[in-house]
Amino acid sequence: MAAESFAGFGPDTVGFLAGLEADNSKAYFDANRGVYDEQVRQPLQQLCLAVGDRLAAGPVPEIQYEPKVGRSMFRINRDLRFSNDKTPYHPYLDLAWWQGEHPKTSPALIMRIRHDEILTGVGVFALTDDRLDRYRAAVIDDPGVELERILAAITAAVPTASLSEPSRKRVPKGFDADHPRARYLLHDGLHLSGAEPTPASITTAAFADHVVDRLGAYLELHRWLVTHT
Question: Which of 77, 7, 83 is closest to 45 using CA atoms?
């Protein structure tokens, strides 16, 4: 599948996602499976490659991406085993371009497409063991000063950008709750993303460049996370 084959999502993509949000049922999905397969899923795979190729050829040569579920792509089916919410589908599309051992544990540039907005950003899922220790040590030492500068620069450039919800209610044991960057110690993983209305270019090849441009705002934070986690 060639990256240059991305020509935009199909004309029914936005309507499909809006319909899935309004009627999140197997009956709706089955009735629109052809739209999903041809106008949504296949262009999503092509977009993954188109954006990944641009990032790899430019600002992030080490970026990794693979248009498969479990790699850059996420299942549209929800895992209902441990959830009180039994709606069967995610009414959005997710992609990740990562740097490290695995997309679920490594810093990644991320994108989510909803019918009415797209989110772009960067983050790393819940850190554990020595990786969490490295993150916390960086936060309270000199790299933490750089982290604050980077976050301030991104939020100034992307007014809608915000951090994900903290993982903890209290600073972990052994750390000073009055430290000037203690709020970052409440995070066992860090995500920053910003939203914008879904652009009309989503149905054109230009959407890939739009996504790369938006992800560019988060590259400094991506590099910080790669270095310190």
Answer: 7
Domain that holds residue 125: 3-228
User: Any idea what DSSP says for residue 17?
Assistant: H
C-beta separation of 98 from 63 below 8 A: yes
**CATH code at position 22:** 3.30.930.20
Calpha distance 189→191 (Å, rounded)? 7
pLDDT score at 173? 95
What tokens appear for 111 in the block?
A: 């994108």
List 121's β-bridge partners, or say none.
110, 193
Beta-bridge partners for 120:
111, 194
Q: Is 100 left (phi over 0), alpha (psi -120 to 50) or beta?
A: left
pLDDT digits (tens, 9 = 90+) for 157-207: 999 999 999 999 999 999 999 999 999 999 999 999 999 999 999 999 999
